[in-house]
């Protein structure tokens, strides 16, 4: 496994402390800078990378180190300096530990994981060499084939860090799949889960019983022809593949009573220089939690305090290219959203996937859903919205075992979509309960309620019937 290490410090690592950290392997290792200086690498004598160090990130959002690392963090703001040792080189792991140990000691702070900085002395690198890295590989790529880029991660939660985000983009541009390999105890951030493309991309979990399995489907995997593929059953047919499922995945975890309120919606705004983005997310957040989001960022950890203006400025600067951001809540009320902002012929689109977590003694405030829907429909150019209730972790992370699917609680059709449907199709539905009107009577959006009971999956049948009806099929 690779070794990812992080220094959490109250002060920004100054040049002298960084140089001291980079001298962990002595003066003979080569130092190189990439990505316009945002990435520094230590190389062996052949120029092969041993250690990659990200530029320090100022985190101004409380709770991110606990959410992603399970670590205690300094009082915000603090600096997050991350380094990654090259796969399969023991000395490189020692270099990483010594690097963050020196940073934490010189600047004042802690090193993660605990105990990683076993020594602050110079690591013996004599005769040490790393595996050659293909020219197309990103800093986070451990194996590169003509089919997939493989990333090995050994951390509590695989997050959408800047270098993992770069790997997602590079794999897409090269038309390669992305396969993330983790030990059994690792979970995914919802941001990574939502961004993971379809086959051949997948989450590969190491398992002592079956070797490897898909962390999202449970299918047992094997390495063949340059990528992880599903293990074929000897009884498989074209009609019935009979894919073997890992016992670890199928057993899952006992129902702890934890729940998630999951909301996904799309808003389409007229293109206007005065447009302010992010207001739709904030409206839902306030209705459900009573407070605005805590922070946001273009990567994880989310490092910036919540600001509509800053988010809008970033999106406008990147336009016409799309902008992806992650939005987080306070540790007391876990919440996480991913927002994709795209300029299209219809205007400026915001695609939002949002979830809030609740413990066994807490009830998701489903009564707030209709208020949130009305706010979107009347003030934020809502196109459509789906709300679900799920049996899932309060901390919102994705575990490598079976979690029951969510069930629909409500669907909302925006006013413009209602207006353009022929006749009264949008109001005349196959559901038992009539839709409720939201917004002005002359141009309402429609709110379709469902039972929303996580133990009753028949809600999906009602939802599918509604979708077929609205499409006219």
The share of residues in extended strands comes to 25-35%
Question: Roughly how many Å is the radius of gyration?
Answer: 24 Å
Structural class: alpha+beta
Strand numbers in spatial order across the main sheet = 19-18-20-21-22-17-23-24-26-25
**Largest sheet composition:** 10 strands, antiparallel
Q: What separation lies between the terminal Cα atoms?
A: 51 Å
The overall strand count is 26
Rounded average pLDDT? 87
Overall shape: globular
Number of helices: 11
Low-confidence stretches: none
How would you explain this protein's 3D organization?
- The chain is built from eleven helices and 26 strands.
- It has 473 residues and is of the alpha+beta class.
- Strand 13 and strand 14 form a beta hairpin.
- The chain has helices at residues 15-22, 64-69, 90-108, 162-173, 190-195, 247-251, 279-289, 308-318, 367-379, 415-420, 458-471, and strands at 3-9, 30-34, 39-43, 49-54, 57-59, 78-85, 109-112, 143-144, 148-152, 157-158, 177-182, 187-188, 202-207, 211-214, 220-224, 227-230, 259-269, 295-297, 304-305, 323-328, 335-344, 347-358, 382-391, 407-413, 436-438, 445-449.
- The longest helix has 19 residues, at 90-108.
- Helices cover 23% and strands 30% of the residues.
- The strands form four sheets. It has a ten-stranded antiparallel beta sheet with strand order 19-18-20-21-22-17-23-24-26-25. Strands 1, 2, 3, 4, 5, 6 and 7 form a seven-stranded antiparallel beta sheet that branches. A seven-stranded mixed beta sheet has the order 8-9-11-13-14-15-16.
- Helix 1 (15-22) runs antiparallel to helix 3 and helix 7 (279-289) runs antiparallel to helix 9.
């Amino acid at each position: 496994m690779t070794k990812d290490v992080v220094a959490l410090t109250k002060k920004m690592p100054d040049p002298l402390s960084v140089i001291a950290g980079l001298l962990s392997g002595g003066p003979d290792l080569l130092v190189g800078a990439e990505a316009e200086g945002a990435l520094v690498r230590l190389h062996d004598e052949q120029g092969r990378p041993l250690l990659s160090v990200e530029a320090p990130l100022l985190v101004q959002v409380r709770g991110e180190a606990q959410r992603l690392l399970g670590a205690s963090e300094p009082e915000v703001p603090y600096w997050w300096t991350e380094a990654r040792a090259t796969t399969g080189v023991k000395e490189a792991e020692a270099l990483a530990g010594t690097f963050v140990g020196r940073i934490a000691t010189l600047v004042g702070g802690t090193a993660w994981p605990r105990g990683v900085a076993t020594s602050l002395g110079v690591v013996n690198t004599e005769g040490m060499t790393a595996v050659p890295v293909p020219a197309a590989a990103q800093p986070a790529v451990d194996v590169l084939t003509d089919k997939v880029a493989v990333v090995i991660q050994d951390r509590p939660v695989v997050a959408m860090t800047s270098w993992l985000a770069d790997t997602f983009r590079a794999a897409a541009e090269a038309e390669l799949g992305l396969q993330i390999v983790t030990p059994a105890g690792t979970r995914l951030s919802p941001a990574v889960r939502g961004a993971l493309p379809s086959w051949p991309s997948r989450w590969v979990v190491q398992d002592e019983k079956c070797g490897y399995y898909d962390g999202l489907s449970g299918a047992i995997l094997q390495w063949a022809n340059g990528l992880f593929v599903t293990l074929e059953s000897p009884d498989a047919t074209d009609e019935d593949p009979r894919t073997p499922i890992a016992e670890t995945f199928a057993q899952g975890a006992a129902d702890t009573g934890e729940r998630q309120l999951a909301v996904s919606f799309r808003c389409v705004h007229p293109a206007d220089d005065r447009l302010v983005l992010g207001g739709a997310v904030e409206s839902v957040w306030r209705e459900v939690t009573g407070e605005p989001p805590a922070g946001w960022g273009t990567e994880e950890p989310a490092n910036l305090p919540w600001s509509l203006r800053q988010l809008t400025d970033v999106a406008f600067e990147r336009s016409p290219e799309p902008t992806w951001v992650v939005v987080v809540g306070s540790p007391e009320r876990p919440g996480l959203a991913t927002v994709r902002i795209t300029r299209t012929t219809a205007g400026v689109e915001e695609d939002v996937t949002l979830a809030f977590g609740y413990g066994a003694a807490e009830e998701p405030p489903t009564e707030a859903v209709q208020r949130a829907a009305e706010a979107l429909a009347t003030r934020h150019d809502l196109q459509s919205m789906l709300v679900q209730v799920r049996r899932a972790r309060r901390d919102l992370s994705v575990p490598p075992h079976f979690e029951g699917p969510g069930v629909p609680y409500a669907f909302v059709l925006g006013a413009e979509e209602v207006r353009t449907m022929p006749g009264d199709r949008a109001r005349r539905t196959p559901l038992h309960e009539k839709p409720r009107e939201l917004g002005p009577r002359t141009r309402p959006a429609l709110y379709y309620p469902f039972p929303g009971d996580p133990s009753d999956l028949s809600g999906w049948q009602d939802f599918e019937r509604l979708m077929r009806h609205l499409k006219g099929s």
